Amino acid sequence: MKLGIVGSGQIVHDFLSASSKIQDLELVAISTLARSKEVAEELAEKYHINKVYTDNQAMFADNDIDTVYIGVPNSLHFPIAKEALMANKNVVCEKPLVETSEQVKELKKVADEHHVLLFEAMTVLYLENYFHLKDNLKKIGKVHVVALNLTQISSHYQEFLAGEHIAKFDRKMGGGALMDMNIYNINFCVSLFGQPKHIAYLPTIQRNTDTSGILNLTYDDKQASLIAAKDAVGPTRSYIEGEKGLIYFDGPLNVLPDYYVQIGSEKPQHFDYNEYDHRMISEFNYFIKAIKDHNQAAADEAYKHSLNAITVLEKAQECLPDD
């Protein structure tokens, strides 16, 4: 993979910190706003990135690049991803891929028309622990209760309360607990149990932003409570409860560092199959192979999942107050 990176914020810093451990990855270029050029240049020097752009279109025209990684505020994902796809670049876009189901469908259409692949960087769905946990679901019998909790107080929370503009708290930029954090819970739940019959979001609103909230998903045979908070202290424990036993894990879902399976009153069994010390390595290893092989089936499957998750997200957003 010959990669061009869009953005120079926190998530890009995080990705680059793990990039040396990702096989068959070449960091060709980074593009950022002119005002952030100095930051991009520092990143380029530190991580041996060959080129720095302050114009996305110029980077998308670079023939040395075959794939674009998008790590910018959520509200910018759709237009930038569309531009990259139209420039015949494969795209790996940070979560949430976009904000509406129609945007997901449009990106897929553009990707197919230009014979390139599109993937959403949703770490949990590519972690080894996720696949093993999914296999272990059958051990706990029919599931009736799901309680997922991703609580992590924001390092910018006090600044937000003081009235400063923080992108991750700005709903117009795709911020807030639902978009920024609960999207992990949504993807995890929908991937395991499919589409719910009823969706209701109960947010805590501060300065017109959902700083935390509980998303309730109703299925024919189960209830799922998905909690995300940027205004409270974690980590917390999540549960999947079945007729024969339960699965539980601590800490942030996007990392899923390990998990436990308890059958009846037996002693819980501990599992940890994750191969890497950084959550983004497994997903990029997958994307690199899929793009190298031009695995259309893999991209189609990723699209279907992203569409299902964004459909739930879109319905939950209807419960938020008007801007």
UniProtKB/TrEMBL annotation:
Residues 2-119 form the Gfo/Idh/MocA-like oxidoreductase N-terminal domain. Residues 140-247 form the GFO/IDH/MocA-like oxidoreductase domain. One of its GO terms (molecular function) is nucleotide binding. It holds the Pfam family GFO_IDH_MocA. InterPro entries: Gfo/Idh/MocA-like_OxRdtase_N, GFO_IDH_MocA-like_dom, NAD(P)-bd_dom_sf. This is Oxidoreductase, NAD-binding domain protein.
